[in-house]
Automatic annotation (TrEMBL):
Residue ranges the record marks as coiled coil: none
Gene Ontology MF, one: ATP binding
Keyword Glycoprotein: no
Domain of life: Bacteria
The keyword Iron is assigned to this record: no
Low complexity bias (residue ranges): 19-40
InterPro entries in UniProt: P-loop_NTPase
Name of protein: ATP-binding protein
Length: 415
């Protein structure tokens, strides 16, 4: 499997690239193809917006890294090759797409700057990340340049559909907390110019600034909506076995990324969808030791719940007795079998759920799992991802075992 991080990011003719170790303008998207199978199995544009590529132009240990994304993508490579940082960049883009501020998304921005990056004449250093989203509007690319030092701010952003730049921003006056934005108009004036905040993603703000009166403006809005929808429905999951062994308060809401409130979620989902709960029990049965007749939660007093395995003979085994691998396996199976209404995600409420795709990000998917558990979990992921409403991008320490599962795309980030 080739290493993708050595591929250079393409630039359009006439674009003067900034230094790769300074927070200059974002790099131009590379070419993409719109002739992918759609959800109905034919060739054409898909009806669900989803990311098809992640670009880490200069981020942490990555330089000119391109990560192709499919319904089921496994990032592999030795420790330190950048698997976790790739997932961190993906999650950061998702949060920015949801309207979060830079300070909230990057609490330690200096840690995102490539280690050997040298400051420019103004002592500025930063990083660049981007992605491509495919959907009804065809491939749409987004590239963002962030200044981390001396202060955190967006210094450049580009939203494009092929060669057509739909939105471009640049920092013109470092003394102002704003970037100068220009977006495609398509009317008598080719572009509209206005300032935008330098602590937010401009693409997420376009619906509030673009009138949609011309064909060009409507195209900008449609492309921005596709990108935001593709980004927003993301659930970053890293089950913590220790937190799953202790009782949790009832009614705490949706499943958290550490899955510490799994008992509360089981209390809810067991009665809401019998078919999916049956699939969960079937999956847990193959990944946990001993007989498993049911997976449920039971009250333990004072409004608290604990998760248990019903052994079918009157015995109930509390999750506090299960191994780390059994707990992680069960939590990840529950995540793959549920959706935005159960998981702690913020989907685009203005778009029907049938046109959205939930993307699960899992760092260390195979951590603590034995061979049968990881194979069973991957088969479940392939089964769920094939339906189109869920996607999984995960980091694994070794993907040599993944070739047995159809549909799994392995991306080797080895140097």
């Amino acid at each position: 499997m080739p290493a993708f991080h050595t591929l250079a990011t393409a630039r359009p003719e006439g674009h003067a690239p900034g230094r790769p170790d300074s927070p200059g303008g974002p790099e131009s998207p590379g070419p993409d193809s719109s002739g992918r199978p759609d959800s109905s199995g034919g060739l054409g544009r898909p009806d669900r917006a989803r990311l098809t590529e992640l670009r880490l132009s200069a981020f942490a240990g990555h330089r000119s890294t391109r990560v192709p994304l499919g319904p089921l993508t496994l990032l592999t490579g030795p420790s330190g090759c950048g698997k976790s940082s790739a997932l961190r960049a993906y999650e950061a883009l998702a949060r920015l797409g949801g309207g979060a501020g830079l300070g909230e998304v990057f609490p330690d921005p200096a840690g995102c700057v490539p280690e050997r990056a040298r400051p420019d004449a103004q002592r500025r250093r930063g990083f660049r990340i981007g992605c491509t989203a495919d959907g009804p509007e065809g491939p749409v690319s987004l590239d963002v340049a962030v200044q981390a030092e001396p202060e955190l701010r967006v210094v450049g952003e580009r939203l494009a559909a092929g060669p057509l730049v739909l939105l471009e921003t640049a920092l013109r006056d470092p003394g102002r907390r704003a970037v100068q934005a220009a977006w495609h108009n398509g009317g008598s004036s080719p572009v509209t110019r206005a300032p935008l905040p330098d602590d937010r993603l401009g693409t997420a703000l376009l619906p509030l600034r673009v009138a949609g009166k011309t064909d060009g403006q409507r195209r900008v809005l449609a492309a921005a909506e596709q990108m935001v929808v593709a980004l927003r429905s993301v659930f970053a999951c890293d089950p913590r076995p220790g937190s799953m062994r202790v009782p949790t308060p009832a009614g705490t809401g949706r499943l958290l990324r550490g899955c510490g409130n799994l008992a509360d979620v089981l209390w809810r989902t067991r009665t809401e969808c019998g078919r999916r709960h049956g699939l969960l029990v079937e999956t847990v049965r193959t990944g946990c030791a001993g007989a498993v007749a049911d997976v449920l939660a039971e009250p333990v007093g004072e409004g608290m719940l604990r998760a248990v395995l019903d052994r079918g003979d009157g015995t109930r085994t509390g999750f506090e007795r299960l191994g780390d691998g059994e707990l992680r396996y069960t939590a990840l199976a529950l995540v793959l079998l549920t959706g935005p209404g159960v998981l702690e995600v913020d989907p685009a409420g203005e778009v029907p759920a049938a046109l959205q795709t939930l993307t699960v990000l899992a760092d260390g998917l195979d951590r603590g799992l034995d061979p049968s558990q990881r194979a069973g979990l991957l088969r479940l992921a392939a089964r769920m991802c094939e339906r189109g409403h869920i996607r999984l991008t995960a980091a694994v320490s070794d993907a040599s075992w993944a070739g047995e599962v159809p549909g799994a795309r392995v991306v080797d980030l080895s140097p």
